[in-house]
Structure prediction request, 595 residues.
Amino acid sequence: MTKRLLGLVVLGIVAGAANAQSTPEHATAPIDQWSMLFVFVLATFVGLGVIVRVSRLLHTPLMSITNAISAIAVVGSIIVTGSDYPRNIRILGAIALFASMTNIVSGFLITERMLKMFKTTGEGGKK
Amino acid sequence: MTHAIVQLAYLAATVLFVLSLSWMSHPRTARRSVRAGVAAMLLAVVATWIQPEIVNDGWIILAIIAGFVVGIPLSRVPLTAVPQRTALSHAFGGLAAGLVGTAKYYLWSSQSPEELTTFRMIAIVTEVILGFLTLTGSLMAAGKLQEVKWIPQRPVTYPGQNIVNLGLLVIAVAIGAALVFQPLGPYSHFMFPAIIVLALAFGVMLVIPIGGADMPTVISILNSYAGLSAVAMGFVLDNKLLITAGALDGSSGLILSIIMCRAMNRSFANVLFGAFGKVQARAAAGEEKVYKPETVEGAAQVLEQASLVVIIPGYGMAVAQAQHRVHELAEQLRKRGITVKFAIHPVAGRMPGHMNVLLAEANVPYSDLVEMDDINADMAQCDVALVIGANDVVNPAARYDKTSPIYGMPIIDADKAKTIYAIKRSKNPGFAGIDNELYFNDKTFMLFGDAKAVVGELVKALAGGSGH
Prediction:
């Protein structure tokens, strides 16, 4: 647990530092590619550390909740759909937004539905 | 100011996503996972939406409503259909990534070509290739799992298949590399669509040679790809929340694939490029062996005398929707003071954890679900092993037959039990097309029929015997 938190803190610092440097006023400000790569690598290690501890009982719900989480593509889809872009480009964005939203809704709902079913002897099965 | 609020919200969402996944470590805390995940996603959506550059709300609202309209029914599918729902969901994820990458490329190339830096172009090409191959690959997988008629269930193989597949990918990557160096070169208006088409074709070709028994691995790999394409989108859009959430998903898919591969003693490359299809000819050449059928009443009598019964479920239980009857059977046996355990092989079924979810649905307490490594130590004391629709995961040939395609795969030692009953729909070999030696063992008796019907009759026979 401590290791995991440590990883998170490092990740937060990197992300924070990277954001402090970027200047949003200038649209053409150089993007800090290196800090993004750092974030990616660190987040992957945090992910690996967390996922190996997931109970084998819950691998199917794990997969459906990560479906929903990877629908974070919703962020990119909203930007493309909602910005002042040409119509054709926004249509692509709207389809992407629909697909991501479908994953978010169905992913979280079905995970909840499955997790409700996991009971110990005390809670569910008679005796 | 808005910028700081948005970034803080993204950071909070990242923390919640990590907590959400770490709460999946135990069924007791798992319910919190969903709440944390939903909160994180809400934060992400709202924070993105309030940014000043988002000026068109109408389309966003429409797309979100459409997402709810399709998403809610998709979450109500029967649990036996969860593998294909998951595959379909990977397809949607790949589609979203591919489309956003495409949109950004055309936007920048027409309005501000200076934005198409080498770094961004690498990210866009990666996002588009990963996204679109995940789309068609997952659709193929979903089709195979749903048993759609025009998609062949058995692995489809032909000579030179791997060369064709790899060739497609190499060409796509080569065109992508050319685009990276010259994003607006003379042929770029033709090269970008070519990458999309090649990625779509590669996805189909990749999954066509893969059979049902390998689906757990393939679904896990596609899960990983869907996450990585979100990461690539983060690089394109300079958005760290996309990178962190995508990386979490990518590592989850990676770990599940490794677990699945280990459970079959195969490598990634072997699953993806070494199709299961080559075994049918050899199996047919073997001599005719004879099954020993048993009646339900006979099996019920032996079950009643047992003190430890181990039930080994497989895909057949899922197909027949027999999980509720299986739970009733376990309850009947328990009433007589018999210990009942469920032995769960990591690759039983069509996706990781498939059997656990089905049995949990039928109210089997999760403390009764025992992993392969733990149950194998007890198999010698087991009086009756009841195999319900499982095949390859109990085939002793995996231990010694070097010519068998499942050689080296860890199995549940059903053959060490004192008596084995196997419920099987027909006399055909399993999905992998391999004869199962367990069925011809001296101690094994077959109960032919639909798993749900047979287990139901067993329950009836047991209930009748106890003097109702």
